[in-house]
Amino acid sequence: MNQQYKFINAPLPYAYDAMEPYIDETTMWLHHNKHLQAYIDNLNDILCKYPALQNWTLEQLILNVPSLPEEIRTPVRHNAGGVFNHRFYFSCLANPASPHPEGALCEAIEKEFGSFKSFRDCLKEAALSVFGSGYAWLVVNAAGKLCITTTKNQDTPLPLNMLPVLNIDVWEHAYYLKHYNLRADYIDDWFHVVNWKQADKNYADCFRMAY
Ligand code: MN
Predict the structure, then answer these.
(1) 70 C-alpha to ligand 1 centroid (Å)
(2) At residue 169, what are phi and psi to the nearest 5 degrees?
(3) Any idea what the Cα angle at residue 165 is, between residues 91 and 185, rounded to 5°?
């Protein structure tokens, strides 16, 4: 996965039908091949006129939006965020998934939420609470504490000094073909395909790196 201009849309590490029956093949294909592709194309189009920004990483672009030329702040925020959020979302899917996180993440979930079941309820509630388009996230905040947050549109948790462990895309394009307007059903299905191994790794990385 490349991290600088010119950004490319790497193939997913699984087939488009790999999340069946929880997330359907057409949704996965459209989501990766059309939606994510559009964010990548838009971001490349913006940056092609700004050579000085072409060696910036995705994370640098996202974290430094306020210092960008004013005319590209909003488009970079939307499109760099769209690339980051979607790459993260796709990387956190696996089928079959292990039913639970393990090790340090499992311990942190039990410490902060009481139990895995209560964590699931909190994350579901947060994902349902997003009005319109956005994401629910499991993150590590600046104090090193595991918590749940939400972002609107294509905003990321990075400018809030939060590092992501797991996200769920609740834009309607992530579920409308299969689940129609029933976001709660999509969230329940998504829990069947969470890549906990990746989340375990992301959690460990939160304490090892800074963007
Ligand atoms: Mn999406």
Answers:
(1) 26
(2) -80, 120
(3) 70
